[in-house]
Amino acid sequence: QVQLVESGGGLVQAGGSLRLSCAASGRTLSSYKMGWFRQAPGKEREFVAGLWWSGGWTGYGDSVKGRFTISRDNAKNTMYLQMHNLEPEDTAIYYCAATSRSRITYDYWGQGTQVTVSS
């Protein structure tokens, strides 16, 4: 089992920045991939960004490329999502997730953190 706890959401004006954190516990993550997803009211869940915990790959959804950066701190077992130039369309609940690198489906999810961008 992997436990994931997000933090760092909040209310920000358009053009502002936020950094989300996802603290992981329960297993060694070296063979895992982790991702950030978001879901806005009335919309499907959307992939935002992902990485291999051991390094070698990061990926981003088209809507956030060039504005968001995913990273992790091995010592703290924490993943981050640095968000710049936020837009009202970025308003959503943001979730972190984890799964084995060999799997497509993410098995472990956090409870989510709300990000609201005002215009």
Describe the 3D structure.
The protein has 119 residues and is an all-beta fold. Helix content is 0%, strand content 54%. It is built from no helices and eleven strands. The strands form two sheets. Strands 2, 4, 5, 6, 9, 10 and 11 form a seven-stranded mixed β-sheet that branches. A four-stranded antiparallel β-sheet has the order 1-3-8-7, with no helix packed on it. The termini are far apart.
Please provide a brief summary of the model:
This protein has 119 residues and is an all-beta fold. It is built from no helices and eleven strands. It has strands at residues 3-7, 10-13, 18-25, 32-39, 46-52, 58-60, 68-73, 78-83, 92-100, 108-109, 113-118.
Give the SSE map.
Layout: E1 3-7, E2 10-13, E3 18-25, E4 32-39, E5 46-52, E6 58-60, E7 68-73, E8 78-83, E9 92-100, E10 108-109, E11 113-118
Parallel strand pairs: 2-11
Antiparallel strand pairs: 1-3, 3-8, 4-5, 4-9, 5-6, 7-8, 9-10, 9-11
Keywords:
about 120 residues, mainly beta, four-stranded antiparallel beta sheet
Strand content: over 45%
* Helix and strand composition category: mainly beta
Determine the fraction of residues in helical runs and give it as a percent range: under 10%
Rg (C-alpha, Å): 13 Å
Mean pLDDT: 96
How far is it from the N-terminal to the C-terminal residue, by CA?
Answer: 40 Å
- Describe the largest sheet: 7 strands, mixed
Low-confidence stretches: none
The SSE string, one letter per element, is EEEEEEEEEEE
Question: How many strands?
Answer: 11
DSSP summary: helix tally: 0
Shape: globular
